[in-house]
Write a structure and sequence with these properties.
With about 300 residues, the chain is an alpha+beta fold. It has eight helices and nine strands. The protein has helices spanning about 5-10, 20, 25-35, 105-110, 145-165, 175-180, 190-205, 210-215, and strands at about 40-50, 55-60, 70-75, 85-90, 130, 185-190, 225, 235-240, 250.
Length: about 300
Amino acid sequence: MSAATTRSRTARTPAPDRLCAEAVDLARAAAEEAAAPGVVGEHVGLVSEGDRVVTHYFESEMPGYRGWRWAVTVARASRAKRVTLDETVLLPGTDALLAPEWVPWSERLRPGDMGPGDLLPTEAEDPRLEPGWTGEDEPPPNSAVSDVSQELAALVDVEDAELTTRPGTSRGSIASVAEELGTRRARVLSRYGLRLAAERWDEAFGAQTPMAQAAPASCVTCAFLVPMAGSLKQAFGVCANEFAPADGRVVSLSYGCGGHSEAAVMPKPPQRAPHAMDTMRVDTYSLRPADDSGSVPSHPDGRTEDLGHS
């Protein structure tokens, strides 16, 4: 026999053992014992796993496990006629309904998922963060670098003493300056973290949004824009218009909306013209003309009876 024929027979799956293949009832009983009553269906086939080892498959009628199968493996010892049970397990078929692939919680978390009392830990090597200045990296007192640092610190103390007279402040100290600027923290945002934040803010309230495309002007000229501090102030600010869609949000300077302060200024209400005739004032008129007006005689009128009036 050639070596090629031997290799082909060795690689080929052996034929199912007859006694193991006929042990369908034993396999069904094992599956029914492991499963709930009434969830083991019809026998759908068998597979030879090796010499005198066969796996029987039964349909699963368990709710929620569509396409799954009960797999019961039986085996027989060499020259033995008794078939014994090896294992019973529920396995998915080719068209089985499977759960989605597991995703770590850090990748499942979305903005707005945190609630009161929740804690969001950050990794020690988070690429969004980098070590801040805490004073721990100062050179030792006796090192060569410390002499230069002491000279620079002395010069700074002299300059600050001339320019500053505020009591209780240790000017010239790197730590005090860092505290004043708010940078004396264990970790600060890295360039990568700043870029991620800028991309996220620009995607939500940037120039490419439909609101900005239809806006009459950009936020850089709006009076409701509150400037930011740091390097991000060159591209972002905070909206302070309560009627704008981005109120209280970080917006790009190229963003815009219909609430721009100078887009539509309401005209002043017109002033009402004064009346040509004053109808609200009461004018008094005398029933008889004045005696000194010259239009009537100076003596009083005669009796009315003389004129034929009653």
